[in-house]
């Protein structure tokens, strides 16, 4: 194993570290790492991202499930439409998109490039949410009126939207899931984060299953990378005890914004 190979695979630890410390966000880094560091084609990179983030998040969610932090009823209301959306997106929508996606005269926007641009937009929105800490405070967990039932209809619609996002760009969408679980289901923030990690894990797996029938995978690369990511999540869960969550999210938000800016420069130059 040469020096460069070792440095690249340390990035797998970084993905797990982020999920372990921040409770999500690993997929924001996974696709850029696969595309720009390992030179993997964009569409295949989104498939690999779904697997890595799915397995790593599932490991991270086991502790939440055992401690009963995951609200299973809310999970079902959000997850069922989300699963349908993410599977259909990966199985039919993404393969059916034309390439080039858009062409005017001599200018042609390829499908992989369009997906990368969409991913960059999502990164910027996620970074903005983390920097501004756009989520209700712990004391605002009871945003639903006393005695009011969770808005299962709106949760289902949000599940459809997040599923399509996950299916299209291979990102978990945790920055969208957590606020909706707090606002629409009235979950305390710690339970919303726990439920979100579990949803991201299963959502990613469902999306990955939609790719299996039409994608050749390099398991010799994917499995070791995922294993290192899992090691990273345990390190991150340990380090999270010593770092203030809000400061951690804000710092990670700025990091994601810098990565997004670098991607823009890389694509335009």
Would you spell out the secondary-structure blueprint of this structure?
Elements (H helix, E strand, L loop, with lengths): L2 H20 L3 H12 L4 H25 L5 H25 L5 E3 L2 E3 L1 H22 L19 H18 L4 H12 L3 H23 L7 H21 L5 H24 L1
Antiparallel strand pairs: 1-2
Helix pairs in contact: 1-2, 1-3, 1-9, 2-3, 3-8, 3-9, 4-6, 4-8, 5-10, 6-7, 7-8
Task: Jot down its keywords.
single chain; 269 residues; mainly alpha; 2 strands; globular; TM_pro_TauE-like; transmembrane; TSUP/Inactive_protease-like; Probable membrane transporter protein
Can you walk me through this structure?
One of its GO terms (cellular component) is plasma membrane. With 269 residues, the protein is an all-alpha fold. The chain has helices at 3-22, 26-37, 42-66, 72-96, 111-132, 152-169, 174-185, 189-211, 219-239, 245-268; strands spanning 102-104, 107-109. The protein has one domain (3-268). A two-stranded antiparallel ribbon has the order 1-2. Strand 1 and strand 2 (107-109) form a beta hairpin. Helix 1 (3-22) packs across helix 3, helix 3 (42-66) crosses helix 8 and helix 3 (42-66) crosses helix 9. The radius of gyration is 18 Å and the shape is globular. The two termini are 32 Å apart. Residues 138-142 have low confidence and may be disordered.
């Amino acid at each position: 194993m040469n020096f460069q190979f070792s440095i690249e695979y340390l990035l797998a630890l970084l993905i797990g570290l982020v999920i372990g410390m921040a409770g999500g966000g690993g997929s924001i880094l996974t696709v850029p790492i696969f595309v720009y560091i390992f030179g993997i084609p964009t569409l295949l990179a989104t498939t690999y991202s779904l697997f890595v983030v799915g397995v790593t998040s599932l490991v991270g969610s086991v502790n939440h499930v055992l401690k009963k932090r995951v609200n299973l009823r809310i999970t079902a209301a959000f997850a069922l439409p989300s699963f349908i959306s993410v599977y259909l997106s990966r199985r039919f929508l993404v393969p059916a998109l034309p390439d080039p996606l858009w062409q005017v005269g001599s200018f042609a926007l390829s499908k992989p490039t369009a997906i990368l641009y969409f991913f960059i937009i999502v990164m910027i929105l996620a970074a903005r949410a983390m920097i501004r800490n756009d989520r209700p405070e712990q004391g605002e967990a009871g945003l639903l009126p006393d005695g009011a039932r969770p808005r299962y209809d709106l949760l289902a619609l949000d599940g459809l939207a997040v599923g399509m996002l996950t299916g299209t760009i291979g990102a978990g969408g945790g920055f969208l899931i957590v606020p909706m679980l707090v606002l629409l289901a009235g979950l305390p923030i710690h339970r919303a984060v726990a439920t979100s990690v579990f949803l991201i894990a299963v959502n990613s797996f469902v999306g990955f299953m939609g790719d299996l029938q039409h994608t050749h995978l390099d398991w010799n690369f994917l499995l070791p990378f995922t294993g290192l990511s899992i090691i990273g999540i345990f390190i991150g869960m340990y380090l999270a005890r010593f770092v203030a969550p809000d400061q951690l999210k804000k710092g990670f938000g700025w990091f994601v914004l810098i990565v997004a800016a670098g991607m823009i420069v890389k694509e335009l130059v």
